[in-house]
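User: Here's a structure from my thesis project, written as structure tokens. My advisor, Dr. K., wants to see whether a designed sequence matches the one we expressed. Can you design one independently, without my sequence as a hint?
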């Protein structure tokens, strides 16, 4: 059984982390499969939206802590440090691929979202969570610091003080608390999660895909750009969209008072 299942339907690629017996703890194999899948999807023009979710009752419980425990026997400190630097950069390759992805990524979240699970969800463009889901950064409980880009995304989503609280205390937060803090976009009853996420992903898959990709670049670069640089980038991205078929269709549909038929071109 593959540790990551990939399906494509109606322009939506669904990536399902598939280790339900471990609450989808992030193994090395899962990381490798996800990195490869994201690179394939990035180049696949038939895919216009991505959904990331977990098999079973949980999104992801974080790294494989039991596997980490087995590393302590006979490992020298320098070797252990080198191992984890390599391992974490391997995870970070996924985050770079998600940030670079020129189509929207939606996290469909149920159950536990812990450690690297928080990082993975936060790296998505939108998060839809069931009411029963809970989030915990949790790294402090095993005596280490966050990875997987959560130290980048969380302060920007919830503010530095709230991110500090999550890191230092490692407490659990409900999906609604995370929505109130700014990390989660949509909270729905568990029984409605699949249908609600399918409706959202379908809507995105029918949108102006190229413009979405340019918009993602614009929003994320705003976190580092100076004012002048950001406004220059706004002009350039608008111009790059204006020569596309979808812009012509969108403007024409507006004038003709009908719904635009975007193709992603």
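Assistant: Designed independently from the structure alone:
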């Amino acid at each position: 059984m593959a540790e990551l299942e990939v399906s494509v339907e109606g322009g939506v690629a669904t990536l399902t982390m598939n280790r339900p017996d471990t609450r989808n703890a992030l193994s090395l194999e899962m990381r490798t499969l996800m990195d490869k899948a994201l690179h394939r999807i990035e180049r696949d023009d038939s895919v216009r939206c991505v959904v990331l979710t977990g098999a079973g009752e949980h999104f992801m419980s974080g790294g494989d802590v039991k596997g980490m425990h087995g590393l302590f026997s006979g490992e020298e400190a320098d070797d252990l440090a080198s191992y984890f630097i390599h391992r974490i950069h391997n995870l970070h390759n996924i985050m770079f691929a998600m940030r670079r992805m020129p189509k929207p990524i939606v996290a469909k979240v149920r159950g536990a979202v812990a450690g690297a699970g928080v990082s993975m969800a936060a790296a998505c463009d939108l998060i839809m969570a069931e009411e029963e889901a809970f989030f915990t950064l949790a790294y402090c409980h095993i005596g280490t610091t966050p990875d997987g880009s959560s130290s980048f995304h969380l302060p920007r989503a919830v503010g530095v003080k709230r991110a500090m609280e999550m890191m230092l205390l490692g407490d659990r937060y409900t999906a609604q608390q995370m929505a109130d803090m700014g990390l989660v976009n949509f909270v729905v009853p568990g029984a409605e999660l699949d249908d609600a996420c399918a409706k959202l992903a379908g809507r995105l898959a029918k949108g102006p895909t190229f413009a979405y990709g340019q918009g993602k670049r614009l929003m994320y670069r705003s976190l580092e750009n100076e004012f002048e640089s950001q406004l220059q980038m706004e002009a350039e991205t608008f111009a790059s969209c204006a020569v596309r078929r979808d812009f012509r269709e969108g403007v024409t549909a507006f004038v003709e008072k009908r719904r635009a038929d975007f193709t992603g071109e």
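When you compare it with your expressed construct, this may help: The chain has eleven helices and nine strands.
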